[in-house]
């Protein structure tokens, strides 16, 4: 929201929306069955939730951001219920209108140095060209005939009517919401304000040219539905008399609610301003469970895995010390003792082979005397 308005226009009209819808359309064959049905339910509920959030915002850029969320949900319903051509047609029609709305918002912001609705009162009267472009694009996104988004929203409603009644009802509620959340800032922009500051002129022409192009797209892109279906080799885009009539009725109801000053209950408005507690739900349902799981995994790793690894390491060290003791005190001692014994035996045998003749004669005489003594003792016994 703090970025330049042309960047916001690009993000909310193409990049952010196209990424999800294009991926869903390209993966439609893979998601056939219950996954695509889940996508349809998510889209229908998101369309209503986004409309409620947009209605409660007090900043024009945030109103348009909520609108993007709601329109993205409608495209998901179109993809799930009507096929690729319905979703892509809605994407293209929405892109022209939403880009123009953000460019016009950028011009109002340059004049008033704010995007808060309270500070934009009467800004449309000061810059009537910008307001004209804003009005055309807003009427298109609000599904006012014969502008582009009216036809795309009718095809989504017709596809939802054939697929699921609940989707059809939610699409009509979102359609009424789109008329309400876009008429409300348009009235604020057109009402007379307390002051009339000068219109900023530097850099204004390029944004006006872009806004004019988007307004022309919002006027004429509605004729591209059938050629787009042929290009995508899809069946004819669905439409029924009931969906057409109820879509118009939904737009009229949404516009009438704002024109008559219908007030939403304070508690519901507060919830919508707080993004329907989406952040709190994400913390409760996603963030906290993941953190608890992460802490449990960390505890298991430190107390179990690390302890087991350390135990194996300590066991290995103990076995190594035992092996070292056996080797030094047993095997090495035995080998060294045998070597010393052999060495001493060699030293003793070396004395017998001294090479001195008198020692040989002495040993011979002593040996002979020992033999005689042994024979005599044997004879006596």
- Order of SSEs, N→C? HHHHHHHHHHHHHH
Report the sheet with the most strands, covering strand number, pairing sense and barrel closure: none
* Secondary structure tally, helices: 14
Report, as a whole number of angstroms, the end-to-end distance. 128 Å
What is the 3D form? rod-shaped
Strand content: under 5%
User: What is the β-strand count?
Assistant: 0
Classify the helix fraction into a percent range: over 70%
Structural class, from helix and strand content? mainly alpha
Report the average pLDDT across residues: 84
Stretches where pLDDT is under 50 for at least 5 consecutive residues are: none
Give the C-alpha Rg.
45 Å
Q: Kindly give the count of domains.
A: 2
Task: Describe the model.
The chain has 381 residues and is an all-alpha fold. It folds into 2 domains: 269 residues, no CATH class; 88 residues. It has 14 helices and no strands. The termini are far apart. The model has no long low-confidence stretch (mean pLDDT 84).
Topology:
Elements: H1 5-26, H2 34-56, H3 60-81, H4 84-112, H5 123-126, H6 128-141, H7 148-163, H8 165-190, H9 204-220, H10 225-231, H11 241-259, H12 266-273, H13 278-352, H14 357-380
Helix pairs in contact: 1-3, 1-4, 2-3, 2-8, 2-12, 3-4, 3-7, 3-8, 4-6, 4-7, 4-9, 6-8, 6-9, 7-8, 7-11, 8-11
